[in-house]
Amino acid sequence: MCQSEDKDFTYGTFNFWIDEIPYPGSGVNITLNSTAWSFIQNYERILNYEYDGSNIPFEQINFEDEDNYHDDNIKHHLFDWTACELSDYGLRTKLEIVGDTLRFFYSQNEGSWKLKEIPLAYYESIIKKLDKLHKENFKSLLDDRFNND
User: Fold this and answer.
1) Full-prediction pTM beyond 0.70?
2) Which of 9-13, 39-43, 73-77, 100-104 has the lowest mean pLDDT?
3) Contact, 16 vs 92, CB < 8 A?
4) How far apart are CA 102 and CA 113, in angstroms?
5) How far apart are CA 114 and CA 132, in angstroms?
6) Which of 1, 55, 132, 141 is within CB 3.0–4.6 Å of 12 for a Cys-Cys bond?
């Protein structure tokens, strides 16, 4: 992890760890500020999105239609969540909230879609921690990593 010379930007590795596998994968160095900001800003939008046809069985979701956001004739069921620079490394994500569960759909490098369900409260706790790190410009992570005061 490192910062720009003016200390406005922090760069480092950011992955989603799902069943002990990192997505988009190891060695991905991104701008943490903009990625964190995107997650934080989209949090309210994700909570307030009108999920049409909520809780569709995974096998019945047509991800090809879900990807076609330029066609107003297609009814979209999932929140299309482009995860900033992570999509540059092949990670595609979509979300749906069903009751107190977040359904996290993901695909790596145009591969098949997968589903991970997590408690909505757990997702909220991640966003709060990310928001705190973002507000302090990741200082605690930099201090821990480089033993700076």
Assistant:
1) yes
2) 73-77
3) no
4) 16
5) 29
6) 1
